Amino acid sequence: MNKQETKKRIEKLKEIINHHRYLYHVKDKQEISDSALDSLKKELFDLENQNPEFITQDSPTQRIGGQALKEFKKVKHTQRMLSFNDAFSKEDMQDWQDRFFKLLADREKNIIDYYCELKIDGLAIELIYENGYFVQGSTRGDGMVGEDITQNLKTIQSIPLKINETKNLIVRGEAFISKKEFKNINRLQESRNLPLYANPRNIVAGSVRQLDPKITAERNLDFYAYDLITDLGQATHEDKHRILKNLSFKINENNKYCKNLEEVFYFHNYWQKDRDKLGYEIDGIVVLVNNNEIFEKLGVVGKAPRAGIAFKFPLIEVITQVEDIKVQVGRTGAITPVAILKPVNISGATITRATLHNEDEIKRLDIKIGDFVIVGRAGDVIPDIIKVLIELRTGKEKSFKMPEICPACSTKLEKSETETLLRCPNVKCFARTRRNFYHFVSKSAFNIEGLGPKIIDRLLDEALVSDPSDIFDLKEGDLAGLERFGDKSAENLIKSIKEKSEITLAKFIYALGIRNVGEETAIDLAKIFKSINNLKIARLEDLENVLNIGPVVAKSIYEWFNEKDNLKFLTKLEKAVKILVVDKSSVIPQKLAGKYFVLTGTLQTMSREIAKEKIREAGGGTSESVSSKTSFVVAGSEAGSKLSKAEKLGVKVISEEEFLKMLK
Question: What residues are labeled active site?
Answer without folding.
Answer: 119
